[in-house]
Amino acid sequence: MSIIIKNLKKYYPTKKNLVKAVDDISFDVKPGDFLAIHGASGCGKSTLLLMLGGLLHPTGGTVDIKDVNPYKLSNKACAAFRTENIGFVFQQFHLIPYLDIRDNIMVPALASYIEDLNMKVDESLEKFNLLERAHHKPSTLSIGEQQRVAMARALINSPKIILADEPTGNLDPDNSEIVLNTFKEFANQGGIVIMVTHEKSAINAAFSNIALDKGKLK
Amino acid sequence: MLHLILKELFYRKTSTLLSFISIALAVTCLVSALSLLEGHKVLTDDIFQKAKTKQIEIMTKAEDKYRISTKDLGFNVLILPKAQNLSNFYADDFASKYMPEKFVETLANNRIVTVRHLLPSLKQKINWTEMKQTIILVGTRGEVPVIHKNPKKPLQQPVEDGHIVLGFQLAKDLNLKKDQTVTLLGEEFNISLIHSPRGNKDDITAWIPLAASQKILNKPKLINAILALECKCAWADIEKVKKELEKILPETQIIGMERRKAKTRKEIRTTAELLTKNSIKDILENRKNQELALQSFANILIPLVMLTCCIWIGFLAMTNVRDRKYEIGLLKALGLLSEDIILLFVGKAFLLGFIGSVFGFVIGAFGTSFFGGITIDSDINNVVFSGKTIFLIIFLTPFLSILASWIPAIYAAKEDPAEILRGE
Ligand SMILES: Nc1ncnc2c1ncn2[C@@H]1O[C@H](COP(=O)(O)OP(=O)(O)OP(=O)(O)O)[C@@H](O)[C@H]1O
Ligand SMILES: [Mg+2]
Predict the structure, then answer these.
(1) Contacts of residue B161, Cβ cutoff 8 Å, sequence gap at least 6
(2) In chain A, is it the N or the C terminus that has fewer CB atoms within a 10 Å radius of its CB?
(3) Which residue has the CA at smallest separation from atom 23 of ligand 1?
(4) pLDDT of B378 higher than 50
């Protein structure tokens, strides 16, 4: 049930030269781990995370999630695999502006059937302290509230893995703590959290961490 | 999905409204053009029907007038002495029996039958001994003044005293010229006129004043025929007129003559028909031309409006795709497929097209009826509101709208979520 990556590479050919965003990285992540990936800006953190999430075809190497290489699946199967297994959290929360909070949390249900959806939405609204905001539009919410909505959305389909790119980048310490605590709890229940960050507090909160430097493991 | 589309439509109100208005406008334009054209056709039919009714009216009126005018014309009769054998009269063309000339006055003075013209004559075939030629001699008198009516211009020019009028053939055979003096049975006459050929007995007839003929033929104060023209009485029936005349002049017998030529009923009918037909033809041609002009205008306008609308919709959809870049990336990251994204945009285009066309249809149809002076009567209803037209407009418009949004939708589906979500 772990994530195993081997010799993972992502090269971007540009006019001038070849940008080696991720260059020959291998590591495993076991269930129950909360891994922080850190490094300087432009070292390839986001690129690596997207490859782990099945969203970006690697130039070389393999990604195995639960013994499945998502890049060997058809587009449709890959999308279904993602929906079933992975929850995403981003620095920009990418909430849909015309849907209210409740509907935003329910968006993953557009891609796949989710059992007891309404009940789960109610639970997560309560969990993230958003009950009163359920029928407000995202633009009326504070940054912290918006990130909590994004968290609720990432968890609604009960994924096994959470991939987060700078989830606390825009948050105040209190809201950061809520997010990090949620991740710890998720990992403690057997899930995998892989979080890209450059914040000390976030790295410290994680159970383990790896550092990247110019596309390679440090 | 529908929920998502609807929410998005209401969220981006300006874009939605713009798309909606342009679709509605295009459809309004289309429907108006159609209704105007149809209305024009219906009106043409209407005008045609009215003209047709008018034509029948005119024809009926013309016939009525004809009836009245023939009654006005009265009857022409020939009055002959009672003793005259009609068979002989018809064979010879003149009577061998005589009656007093004063019968003319008796007839003129009576009040029951009015006669417009009275032409007494003395007619006989004689041998012009001086010329050794058989001729028909007619002694005539001008019209007898009718007492209770202004004497009209005589129908026949009376021959002046001492003069003679000759038929064409007679003058030719005898080698006689105008103004020559001839002797007829001892009397001298000056030739005042030679008729042009008539192709009947007139060509061998000589006309002299009645009195002269009475003297030559030794029939003092006698005549053998009175031509009474335009006899009228209370009854428009020649038999009654005849009977009445025979009562007034018991010593005579009356025979009906051919009426003065009046236009026949059929002629009048044809003339009226022709006249009205031509005017109807003109109207129809005129309207046909107008229709063609309208049609060619619509032929240009409709595709132009449709095309402009399509381009505009496509442009708006493209803008919409750009606005929703992050949303699309997110939806794809969350597991929505490219097909789903296309469906999202196509569904929106369909909804916009459908609602827009319904609105446009209603505005166009009722707008033209209110402002175009065309009432939505059953005829136009049949055409513009026929199932076919409604189907074409209401269902083809969303289709066009989808077509216009197709490229932006494909573009949206191709968005790479990685590219969008990598941040920065
Ligand atoms: N599509 C692309 N074409 C060319 N170069 C790219 C492309 N995407 C990423 N890169 C380059 O790859 C490198 C790694 O990018 P990436 O976004 O993974 O960095 P990062 O570690 O997430 O940085 P940050 O901390 O600023 O988010 C960068 O130098 C970036 O410029
Ligand atoms: Mg990054």
Answers:
(1) B209, B211, B212
(2) C
(3) A42
(4) no
| Ligand 1 site, residue B3, Cβ cutoff 6 A | no
A77: three-class secondary structure by DSSP: helix
Neighbours of A146 (CB within 10 A): 24
What is the number of alpha carbons within 13 Å of residue B69 lying toward its C-beta? 13
In eight-state DSSP terms, residue B216 is H
Cα B206 from Cα B222, distance rounded (Å): 18
Cα A143–Cα A149–Cα A153 angle in degrees, nearest 5:
145
Prediction ipTM score: 0.90
Please name the residue that has the structure tokens 């959470």.
A162
Strands A208-213 and A34-39: parallel
* Cβ–Cβ under 8 Å, residues B12 and B323: yes
Q: Is the pLDDT of residue A196 over 90?
A: yes
Note whether A53 contacts B423, CB cutoff 8 Å. Answer: no
Q: Is B387 exposed, middle or buried (0-12, 13-18, 19+ CB in 10 A)?
A: exposed
Q: Is the CB of A43 under 6 A from ligand 1?
A: yes
CA geometry: angle A194, A172, A31, nearest 5 deg? 15
Task: Flag whether pLDDT at B376 surpasses 70.
Answer: no
pLDDT tens, residue by residue, B93-102 = 888 889 998 8
Please state the pTM of the whole predicted model. 0.64
Chain A residues with beta carbon closer than 8 angstroms to that of B423: 46, 90-92, 165-166
Q: Compute the C-alpha angle A187/A209/A214, nearest 5°.
A: 135
Q: Please give the number of the atom of ligand 1 that sits closest to the Cα of B419.
A: 1
> A42 alpha carbon to ligand 2 midpoint, in Å?
7
| A46 within 8 A of A196, measured Cβ to Cβ | yes
Alpha-carbon distance of B26 to B363, in angstroms, equals 11
